[in-house]
């Protein structure tokens, strides 16, 4: 199959879009968030039972003492341009990417 995506020099390229982050593996380091210019994911708080408490609003946010750890959550997948920068900086390899030709619109 020929890619419909090309770079500036005309080379074919297949973007791979971020679709999920494995919450049990993610350490919430924030590297992927810092490298992403599209705000595809955000840091969320998680309690002892593994339930997501909500988006983190800052370092002082402890979710009324319920916070156990932080994880990244894909909350705006449609913003992803498929550059793959987030996967290159992730120390835990906890992200799932799908090639553009495999994504259902």
TrEMBL record:
Its cofactor is [4Fe-4S] cluster. It holds the Pfam family Fer4_7. One of its GO terms (molecular function) is 4 iron, 4 sulfur cluster binding. InterPro entries: 4Fe4S_Fe-S-bd, 4Fe4S_Fe_S_CS, FdIII_4_nif, Fe-S_Ferredoxin. Signal peptide: none annotated. It comes from the Bacteria. NCBIfam families: fdxN_nitrog. This is Ferredoxin III. It comes from Sinorhizobium americanum.
């Amino acid at each position: 199959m020929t890619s419909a995506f090309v770079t500036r020099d005309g080379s074919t390229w297949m973007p791979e879009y971020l679709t999920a982050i494995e919450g049990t593996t993610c350490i919430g380091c924030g590297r992927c968030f810092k490298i992403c210019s599209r705000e595809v994911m955000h840091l969320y708080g998680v309690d002892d039972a593994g339930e997501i408490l909500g988006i983190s609003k800052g370092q002082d946010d402890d979710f009324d003492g319920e916070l156990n750890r932080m994880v990244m959550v894909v909350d705006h997948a449609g913003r992803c341009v498929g550059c793959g920068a987030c996967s290159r900086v992730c120390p835990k390899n906890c992200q799932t990417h799908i090639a553009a030709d495999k994504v259902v619109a």
